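Comment thread on ticket #2218

A.B. wrote:
> Attaching the input chain for the structure job we discussed in standup.
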Amino acid sequence: MPYFTTSDGTEIYYTDQGAGQPVLLSHGWPLSSDAWQVEIKLLADNGYRAIAHDRRGHGRSSKTYTGNDMDTYARDLAELVEHLDLSNLVVIGHSTGGGEVVRYAAQHANGRVAKVITAGAVPPQMVVSDTNPDGLPMEAFDGIRAGVLKDASQFYIDLTEAFFGANREGSAVSEGAKREFWRQGMNVNLAAAYDCVKAFSETDFTEDLKALDVPILLAHGDDDQIVPIDDAAHKAAALVKHGTLKVYAGAPHGIYGDYQEQLGRDILEFIAE
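C.D. wrote:
> Ran it. Output below, let me know if you need it in another format.
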């Protein structure tokens, strides 16, 4: 399995499949690169080089106590890109990963990034603040932290209900998909899981979004119960210079089923444009 070591000594796991224009995928919390397996195969099958990493503290990467913040995540991504010497790069991020790729592309890309794609992404900012008065209350994120501390195993099981929209009438999400979410979640160490809540909820990406000078596809389900579309993609679309907003009717936060199939087609079309 391929690993590389960051400048602060953290070992980052990544998978690298296919050949062609590189596409780098960044996962959501508390998951790993395994969350992108379908998309990795889709991209590789269609002539692209698909690369996905396990964020520090997550999956097979080092179980970090420090550096679990968005600036370090973006720096890790930049060091991976430099390590692999990628150019004409497309970056894709889901949820927390959406924030990570936006910050990377805005602050570290140095001309290497051609396009950005986000899905259910956290930018511009999730938590309520003076500059984000209609954001989610801090109590919502305190509840996540408390749940992770008290019983992470049960918390991740419970979270799958809203994540996949399994609590909605007519949901077709499988028990296997829920268990796979739980499996990946149990591979993140507690300190990293806990600190990442602050990273994805409190980081303000407003200036990063404004600074992007490449095309960006903003994909979001309009029934996302984790990152509500009005607090995220709708606001982000108003900040970017070259943005395309794609709304998926009835789609949840988790990329699954019909949403996953349509998103896959849209990703291929957007990259090829």
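A.B. wrote:
> Thanks. Noting for the ticket: The domain at 3-272 is CATH 3.40.50.1820 (Rossmann fold).
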